[in-house]
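Students often ask why inverse folding is considered easier than folding. One informal answer: many sequences map to the same fold, so there is more than one right answer. In these notes we will look at a single instance of the problem. The structure comes first.
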């Protein structure tokens, strides 16, 4: 078995992975790959014209990728499969009730967007009342955020978001770090050092990928940690315990800019290939 990589050209990470796997690249309107190849769908929602004639295995079904790309559909599937996720609604009245209870509201005007695009944060009921959005999300007051990479029901890579250092903030002309939406433009990056890990975070990430019917995905998990009872009693500073963790979204074409992450994907897909060849 060898891989045929189908990718949206805007995702450079798909090419990096394909090169590492020594796979072939295929296009939606190009020639159909041979049936002895496994089609690795890297973030493509639209089915290729040749898909009905392709008899090989497909990793990441197109409907599942479409569901992962749509925030509302993702949340509905997470809830259906009892995966801890954000409180959400399509009803403005409920969003207003949440706001009156003291919660900020994240209104999403775009259901298929990333990096915080299409999000407006409301803490004023009058302003929220004028908003017409297809999705409203109650703020989850996190103090940690993670990206958990899952393949075939196993965690293959793990990173935690942290604030950029002062030099990097200056290099990127970022004057104020926004903790509400933790993306690069707001001064946040993924790191693999000083990570707070817990098996529950791994488990909710695995469950999220399965709920969407995906074979692999990079899961963004938000978490609340608190000082443990033992730390409070003995004056400890670093003893933490996980209070809760929820899934925010699943990425089907994640960045593989960190060499260690790319290497872990290559290693995991090669291991998957060996397992399939044994069957």
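Output (designed amino acids):
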């Amino acid at each position: 078995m060898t891989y045929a990589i189908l990718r949206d050209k805007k995702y450079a990470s798909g090419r990096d992975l394909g090169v590492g796997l020594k796979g072939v690249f295929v296009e939606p309107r190009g020639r159909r790959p041979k049936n002895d190849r496994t089609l690795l769908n890297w973030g493509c929602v639209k089915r290729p014209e040749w898909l009905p004639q392709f008899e090989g295995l497909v990793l990441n079904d197109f409907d599942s990728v479409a569901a992962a790309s749509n925030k509302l559909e993702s949340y509905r599937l997470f809830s259906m499969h009892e995966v801890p996720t954000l409180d959400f609604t399509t009803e403005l009245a409920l969003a207003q009730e949440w706001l009156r209870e003291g919660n900020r509201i994240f209104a999403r005007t775009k259901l298929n967007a990333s990096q915080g695009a299409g999000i407006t944060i409301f803490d004023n009921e009058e302003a929220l009342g004028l908003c017409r959005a297809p999705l409203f999300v109650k703020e989850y007051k996190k103090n940690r955020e993670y990206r958990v990479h899952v393949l075939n029901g196993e965690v293959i890579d793990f990173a935690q978001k942290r604030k950029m250092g002062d030099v990097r903030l200056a290099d990127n002309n970022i004057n104020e770090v926004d903790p509400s939406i933790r993306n690069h433009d707001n001064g946040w990056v993924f790191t693999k050092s000083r990570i707070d890990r817990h098996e529950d975070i791994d488990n909710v990430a695995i469950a999220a990928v399965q709920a969407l019917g995906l074979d692999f995905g990079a899961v963004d998990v938000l978490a609340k940690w608190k000082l443990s009872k033992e730390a409070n009693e003995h004056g400890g500073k670093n003893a933490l315990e996980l209070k809760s963790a929820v899934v925010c979204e699943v990425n089907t074409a994640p960045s593989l800019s960190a060499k260690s992450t790319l290497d872990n994907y290559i290693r995991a897909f090669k291991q998957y290939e060996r397992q399939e060849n044994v069957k």
